[in-house]
UniProtKB/TrEMBL annotation, chain A:
Source species of the chain: Paenibacillus monticola
Gene3D superfamilies the UniProt entry points to: 3.40.50.2020
Name of this chain's protein: ComF family protein
InterPro entries per UniProt: ComF/GntX_DNA_util-trans, PRTase-like
From TrEMBL, chain B:
Full protein name: DEAD/DEAH box helicase
Domain Helicase C-terminal as annotated: residue spans: 506-663
Keywords, sorted A to Z: ATP-binding, DNA-binding, Helicase, Hydrolase, Nucleotide-binding
Coiled coil segments of this chain: none
InterPro entries, sorted: DEAD/DEAH_box_helicase_dom, Helicase_ATP-bd, Helicase_C-like, P-loop_NTPase
Organism: Paenibacillus monticola
Amino acid sequence: MNTKSIWLKGLQSLLTSSVPQCLICGKHRQASSQLPSICVNCAAAIPWIVSPRCLKCGRHVGCPDCNRGGETSPIICNRSAVAYNSVMREMLGQYKYRGNERYSALLGLMLDRAYLILKEEREKEQRVQRSSPHSTISSFFQNKRAASGILWQADLLVPVPVSDSQLEERGFNQAERLADVVSQRRGIPQLPLLVRKHHTGKQSFKGRAERLADMKHAFAASPAMIELFPNWLGAMKPMDRPLQIIIIDDIYTTGSTLRACAEVIQQMTEAYRYDVEIYSLTWARS
Amino acid sequence: MKVAVYAVKENRGWSLWISLNLAVDRLWWSGALGGSKGWNSRAVSMVILATSLPLGWAVKLRDSFKSRTSMQAWGNMEWRDYIARELAPEVQEEMATGGRGGWSHNEGSLCQPVLNGWTSIELMEDGHERQENIFGATLDHLSHQEDLERLNLALAAEQLAGALAGRSLLQPELEAMLAEQLPNLSGDWRSTAQLVHLQGRLVLTAGILATTERKDGATAWLSRVAMPWRGFAKRRVLPRCQRCGSVATGHTACAACGLMGCAYCEACLALGRSRACALLLRSAALPAVRCTAGSAPTAARRWGLSAAQAGAVSAALGFLAEPRQRSAGQGPERFLLWAVTGAGKTEMVFPLLEAVLAAGGRALIATPRRDVVLELAPRLAKAFPAETLAVLYGGSPDRWVSGRLTLATTHQLLRFNQGFDLVIIDELDAYPYHNDPMLAYAAGQASKKDGSFLFLSATPPKEMQREANSGRLPHAKVPVRFHGQPLPVPLHLTIIPVRIFLKRGTLPKSLTQVLRRSLAREAQIFLFVSRIAHIAGLIKLLRQSFPEVAIEGTSSQDPARAEKVAAFRSRIISLLVTTTILERGVTVPRSDVFILDADSGLFDEASLVQMAGRAGRSKDDPAGTVVFASPQWSRSQRGAISHIRAMNGNAQRNGYISRKSSL
């Protein structure tokens, strides 16, 4: 590089507007207002799940798995931020397998939107529940007051763990990083309650039945939580409702991972005689 | 990852090592493994400084280590202070990012077995360990079993050293390679790699290291003038990716090394993540082979070269055979093969490859595009049937094949370290190299220090043209096409800008006239535009004016691009509207070239010459038409035309132009 071109470069950098570079397409374009790290075009391509078709698993299309019934799930419902299409697959690949950790904040913000949707749904439902029985005039006013004050908030976020060997290889647990963002924005504590006992291999290479069988005993209570979890429970204010715990993961495919985690969490809370409502929140729903 | 760090004292003095498996190091320094290599200086003393230190820190300790005589008397206090001093900036930075940061919390269990030769072991209270080698190694009392294990380890080391020769791989890449190529080694590769490292045949380092900025002459001078307040000799220390040379910009918490601020490289993520605690294994430098000066006439006959090609090849062969005194310590020598579009560059490469292979060397051809790799691979395999050819591109099945002849896309160069005697870089000025310091770095790493670089280009960068013309860069010009006809000289057509006539909805009459003339002679027409947005509108107007002609358009955003190009080649489509994506590598017989808005800033001289080079490439129709259509002349257009004229003149003077057309 010669002197002239260095000067020209310097001048150019002064003259070009400071439009930020999009994380996904790399172009300098107007940033999206909701997701500041990407441009408006890339933001427009995100297949948000605003109102899920399947109220159980949060799927954007009709869901044969949930209609099949038979499986009793410990999870009340799942909500996901986006439908898993090829654009989203590329995005998750960049983050999880390539290791571009700049995506942490972006995917976390997206997950946060799913949290808000879940929260709104729960609040609406509680409002309906409270206002439906005996509607005398006095209780109507009471309920109105109570209903407006309804605020649903999760008590705890639990990330789905990855195995030690995967953690070593990847350097981070994507579910934990996503949960971090929601935790910070919403002021909900996060505890890694679980560990993955054995490495189940890449889920993406397996069929549905295989995944379900694999998952049965994949998770256990984390030894580090033997003291921490009861401490945390003890520090909670006494409540007249069950605990509300959200399990966080990057993607919901068959839901077997999340169900297996939920079962362990249920056992843990039962051991301390707490009632629990378990929800799950994932970044994508396939 | 985390590794162990220890210091050993030999007769020459102290040295510091990192270890993937201390057991191997103990054996090595006891002298038990070195028999075959003529090992004779056993370590006198060995101090284990840490058993699990983040790799980046361990490598820093090792690379900055200098032996001092006083070290002999050091106890654990002194060693601990030494490490604390050396790692102070790292620890400070780690604390600042919120880490607990410290090497002191690694007092692991150090109760490893005392191996033969190490007769006293002294465990220091805070995790340091000193061993005194009093009697030296005696192999007599070794059991047969242990002996066999050692032999196996030594054999495995031979295999691994062979597989890694000339390579630069990150740990996951090594694991993938072993799983595919040497599954017997994939179990305990750490021990094997450690032994190869101790033997001096493998460099173990971290993916990212802090390095002091090196500045070349011009930049250093400028920074002094432009930024005097920064101080004269102040040099910045930046974390750089050891694989691709980029400055690492990302810092995140890392579960593998336990640090809060573990740096990673964002530039070469596509080949697997390089980070401060990622193990990078690079083979040690090997000396390059020297080719014997081949005879050019033989080569010309064997490979069917024209006179102009043979001349250039003979110059290049001479360059390869030349002894390398003047470049001692300055890296590989460079040679530019400056051959016009359609000169038959590929054919000229064959004799050069043959010369290097015959001398027992290894050669690499790097080209920017995957299509070129796929097209060239069968031709190379046919030309050199006896050689294993490794064909590398993203997702290629040969990924871990090691061949003396390697054909790769440019990014694959990052996986090599001083592995080749000859590195041929095709289309030097094309997209991936152009303005990408990462690929320049990778190319520099791939060649042996005393090897050679051969650049192939029709339009070398200005800087290189100057070097060649002033004689600083050895080069050979091939000013004529393989068919011996001059290059078509572009004509200029003054028309209004595309943007305006698209708005008006009519094609300029002068443009339709020249197009009609080309269609009348049944030529295939390339119509280049500067913007993708113009393609659709232009196709509409063209179809109105020429309803009987098959007209299509394609661009980088067109998923059906490959099919359209194929259809154009096979004359199903006769007029193709496109952008600079087709400026190179596409050969269509009997073609004419039209460049609209040729004064656009997006077309530089090189790309105009390349586009013009699409015309008249076949023997049957050597005189295609090239038209630069624009409202005004520009420097690039004049430059391109004078470039083409100069090449034609050069060919004429050298008598390369065939008689019948020189009129």
